[in-house]
Amino acid sequence: MQGFAVFDLIIISITLILGLKGLFRGLIKEVFGIIGIIGAIFVASRISKETGELLAPVLVLENEATIKLIGFVVALVGVWIIVYSAGIVVSKIFSASGLGVIDRFFGFIFGATKIFLIFSVIAYALYQVESFRKVINEKFATSAVMPHLISVGSHIIKLDTDSLANSFNKAIDTVKESPIVKDATSNIQENVNSTVNGAQEVIQEEIIKQVEEKIEESTNMSSEEIDAMKEKLKNIANKPEENQ
To answer: Rounded distance, CA 33 to CA 144, Å?
Structure first.
């Protein structure tokens, strides 16, 4: 019980502490900051080539990929600075009009909500994994915050795990039915069969060789025994003659 209370306290504390950033920055700066990042990526991805071509003669660039990368980075930073500067100007105008307190209050709400939504997405994504789901159900069964994180996260992202599993299985089946995979499997099977047959032949030859050696040893021993028996018979046959 204490562990779960600590978890709830940690999540709430982090949310409130990071929400203070929005309190100091204000709603307008927070919103313009997010718009600046998203907008900068959106714009930079579309004008990166043109921007890079303008900078190529100055930086003496020839590689097309490098030109496009430099163009993207410069455009990204440029657009973000423009949007962020606009946010600062609007925020100062807002403060000058006597609405600075409202701006900061909603900035705190916006900042805390943003952090809580991030936690919600992470919690819901982990909850879709079977192993994590069991741990969450067991360890956080009495948590007051976890159910809300999962519930909010489910409205932000929709993860159809069954559909993902079916798509994954279809992809595997498609790969299995691929001619390249079939040929590779056939070649591997042929190599395995060839190796097994070769090993069997070697083993059979070794067994036959050992059997032949044993037979030869047995034959040699029988000959010696036969010779010894002949000597004994000769001795027995010679004894009556000596007695006469």
So the answer is: 32
Distance CA 89, CA 112 (A): 24
Query: CA–CA separation, 196 vs 214, rounded Å?
Result: 27
Residue reference for tokens 């956080």:
140
Alpha-carbon distance of 244 to 237, in angstroms, equals: 12
The token pair at 70 is: 């430099």
Percent residues over pLDDT 70 in the chain: 70
pTM metric for this prediction: 0.48
Report in angstroms the alpha-carbon separations of 223 from 228, 233, 234: 9, 15, 16
Residue spans of alpha helices (H) in the chain:
2-25, 27-59, 64-94, 100-127, 130-139, 146-156, 161-177, 179-243
160 DSSP assignment: -
- For the chain, what are the domain ranges? 2-159, 177-243
